[in-house]
Structures are given as C-alpha cells and as structure tokens.
Specification:
82 residues; mainly alpha; 3 helices; 0% strand; rod-shaped
Length: 82
Amino acid sequence: MSMTDEEILAAADACGMMLFGLGCDKAKFEFCILAFAKFVSKIERFKEREDCAKVCEQEQEYWGWDKVFDAAKLIRARGEQA
C-alpha cells in the first residue's frame, strides 16, 4: 500500500524537512517533496521486481523449468510498463 500525499507530507514535517521550505513557495516545496517520494517509491518497486525475477532465474537453473524463467521475464516486463 502506498502512502497518501498527506502521510508523506506529515512524515516530512515530523522529521523536520518542512523547515527547509521556510521562506519558499509552500505549494512548490510540497510538490518537490511529493515528487521525490514518488521517485523513491518507483526505485523500490523496481528493486523488488528485480529481486523476484532473480529468484525465478535461480529456481529455473535448479529445476530447469522454462516456465519459471518465463516468470522472470514477465516480472521484469511488468516493471517496464509501470
């Protein structure tokens, strides 16, 4: 489950990030924080998919199943669609 914009901004405020935006356009600063959080989220999803694909490939080498190898390709393809 992804965090809502409000949760992201509350977390940024809780750790003091919002102090860096003092004196700046608040809407623009919040936009930048949210854009950064969404970018980090995409990176994490990519890493998780790649880890899953690697597990499939390791199983394919052990079991020799073509279908398991196909699963690794499907997992990576899904990441490219996102």
